[in-house]
Amino acid sequence: MAPVSRAWGAGDALTLGLRDMRVRSAAGATVASTMMPEGLRGTIESAEVAGRFDADLRVVGGADRERPRVTGEIKPHRFEMTIADQRVTAEEVAGIITLDDTGGTVETMRVVGDGWWADLRGRWDLAGSGAVIVEGTIDGGSERGLTPEVEALLPTELREALEALAFDVEGPIEADNIVLRVSSSESGGPVHAASGRVVFARATAEVGVRVSDASGYLDFESRSEPGTALSNFGIGIVLDEGQAAGVRFDNAATRVTSDPTSRTVLVPAIRANVHGGRLSGSAILHTEGDATYEAEFRASGVPLGELLADWEHTAGIARAAEEETLAPDRPDAEARGIVDAGLSVTGTLGDAASRRGRGRVLVGGGQGARVLRLPLLLPLIEVSNLQVPRNDPLDFGEAVFILDGDRMVFERLGVFAQSVEIFGYGQMWLPDLRLDLRFSSRATARLPVVSRILERLRDELIMTRVGGTVGDPRVSTQQFTRTRRMLAGVIGDDLTDEERRMLDIERQSRESERREWRAPRPSGSDEGWGR
User: Fold this and answer.
1) What does pTM read for this prediction?
2) Comparing C-alpha atoms, which of 225, 256, 252 is closest to residue 240?
3) What number is the average pLDDT over the span 332-350?
4) How far apart are CA 499 and CA 381, in angstroms?
5) Structural contact between residues 396 and 419, judged by C-beta atoms closer than 8 angstroms
6) Number of neighbouring beta carbons within 10 Å of residue 272
7) Within its chain, how far is the Cα of 443 from the centroid?
């Protein structure tokens, strides 16, 4: 087919009937060059648009050098194009593009790809100076989650925001009334604006802690202009349920906004219900270079037994996946007290080994609750502290810890009963919750000189060790730990890496122990507080 000359006389007309034409054929190129301005045509060429279409067009020559007027209909059958470095293929297309004197209209075009679909509606207008204004709406969905093709089809600004949050979806995802507006000109870059809602299930994200198995929706609004490294967006996220750091939550909400000037993503407020308690937090994500984050979290009124059951279940699922066995059921939660906790953490998104943080946990036992159960060892501990065995409940606890990659290093561990106080240090590994803890004890009613001498002797004779996992702790005793360590140094027997690590933790614990313990007695009085 010969090119349509722009030198037609005014009013000259040509009627075209094209069937099953290739977009990148000579006829397709002629139609594109005739009906599209330079800027829009360049965009289509750079996207390497391909496919087939039918068209019934009327081309009327304009006066002097005016662009010919094109009217009629185009019916695409199939197309593919490159968006955000991803090739997107629509195997089925049903709908009509109507061309008029000032632009074109799409009346509900159904586009179907590999596991996804979209309904497109919209219009573009050719303004003065070759500018193009595009306005449209998109509804769509995918049963396969946020696949690379589906992600490429999202508005650029929303895609940037989701990448900053390491957001992914494994379950169904649906876009509801996404509104797009693009204004562009041949002399300047495009200005994008978008808004809408995305509903999802089984989503994952990272906001200082890993969020997984989350279901809910997000509402977004965004705008980007040429020359900005980060678009301006705001996203409200509501989650019906999910899991954060292995703990189940529900009724969660947060707000995510961008700061294009500093190229940061702000999460100023996070809130969620956790087994009847509350979780709150905030985070800052830095998008320049390696994507890093800073986050703070606070939990209050959360049952310890529910946390332990969640963590045990999560660790069991991970072990089952590794061993290719059936995942275990979640264990029943025991009454283990109520948790108040705080955590500050930094790291690189997607790199668990980079996590560094510090936190503190307080656990208060409620009616009938025991923070720690030592049915056989507690009477021995009481006797070793010159106490009549009463098996008092260990109903208050405190932990001060450092987060180092996949390891929680406990500088201070304290569990308190009315008659004795148990102190310790150690470490726990994530996500399998393996334990390596050491404990010693002292009486709450102490004789100034005698108690200290007896404690030193007793700690040499009996040191309690807790191994195993959180769900299956193994409690044992060790004797003459300091003596054996001293003899090993004398005879030149090298310590293992694990022993050196525990020595370092013990030193940190001693430094931390110089601070005063404030373990409140059940009576509420100051009498008998820790030193």
Assistant:
1) 0.79
2) 252
3) 89
4) 25
5) no
6) 23
7) 45
Q: Are 30 and 3 in contact (CB under 8 A)?
A: yes
CB neighbour list of residue 158: distance below 8 Å, 6 or more residues apart? 194, 198, 220, 222, 233, 235
SS3 40: helix
What distance in Å separates the CA atoms of residue 32 and residue 49, rounded to the nearest whole number?
A: 11
Q: Decide the pairing of beta strands 92-94 and 351-364.
A: unpaired
> Whole-angstrom Cα distance, residue 410 to residue 401?
4
Terminal Cα distance for the chain, rounded: 95
User: Residue-wise over 468-498: b if at least 16 C-beta within 10 A, else e?
Assistant: ebbbeeebeeeeebeeeeeeeeeeeeeeeee
Alpha helices (H) in 91-132, listed in sequence order: none
SS (H, E, C) 488-513: HHHCCCCCCHHHHHHHHHHHHHHHHH
Mean pLDDT confidence for 478-490? 51
Give the residue among 133, 115, 111, 113 at the shortest CA–CA distance from 124. 133
Q: How confident is the model at residue 9 (pLDDT cuts 50, 70, 90)?
A: low
Q: What residue type is assigned to position 130 of the chain?
A: G
Half-sphere exposure of 353 (CA within 13 A, CB side): 0
